[in-house]
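Let us practice reading a record.
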Amino acid sequence: MSDSTASLRRKISGAGDLQSVVRTMKALAASSIGQYEKSVIALADYYRTVEVGLGACFRQSKPAPLTVEGKVQPDASAIGAIVFGSDQGLVGQFNDVVADYAIKTLAALPGKPHVWAVGERVHARLADAGLPLMEVFAVPNSVKAITPLVGRIQIESEARRAKGHNARLYVFHNRQHSGALYEPVSQRLLPLDAQWQDGLSQVHWPTANVPEVMPDGTTTLRALIREYLFISLFRACAESLASENASRLAAMERADRNIDELLANLRRTFHRLRQGSIDEELFDVISGYEALSEPARFGPRQCFEAAQGRSVAFFEQLRRTEWSVKERLGGSRSVL
């Protein structure tokens, strides 16, 4: 056999260590999915509240083009994109799927895109595709860390819009389906055009009371728009993190099964090799015992005839057995 028992022991030990790492990663992914899924569910109610408030503002006043404050109007051909990926590996095709979707979607839009990447892995994938990248952000490691990230993205986006860039803003991320399944999705955050305002103005007010916007429509509207953009980015990040951990959990489960199969094969090979070695040692001992028990049987003439009728390998094995037995018994008489 090509592998010795010592090398098989090393392989079994290494596979066991790798399985411990895989099971630790699987436990971490399983525990992380829950917090992100709960945050997405909680955001749904808040998102609905903001939509209802925006609808009340738009019904009270006629929809009008919404512009950001500043002297420079944004270039209509400029496109800003935010792509959520992962910093860590072991997530299967998670980053490739969302990166390919973003590349394909941006290529179909008129204008030159500028991309913010959330995650080193997706940043590298987008850079390989030749997209102009503005900045890379670290992926949050908890729900509490999402808020600072969204704040930084908003500051960067508003700074570029104030300089006349990024009239249109899109966000790309993976959204979880059932289990480990996910799909890439996109949302256009800006501009807040008349079509978007008309859609929100049709949102039904949940009670029979007529809403009143206070203190004035403009101030309240701008506050609700800021909340709308914040929630959209927060939800995209939370959905991406939930999908990432679901993908990592599925990948770790597959790796765990593969390692179990590998360990089973290695152990079978090890036991078979070890049993063969034991059988060979037992045969050597029995052959040596028989040689010492009946020395006349192995005289010079008989050994010559045995060498002619049997292989040289057996003759040499018999000689090694003799010396081994002599060392154990302390004898000096040769049987050959």
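A brief commentary: Confidence is low (pLDDT under 50) at residues 307-311, 332-336.
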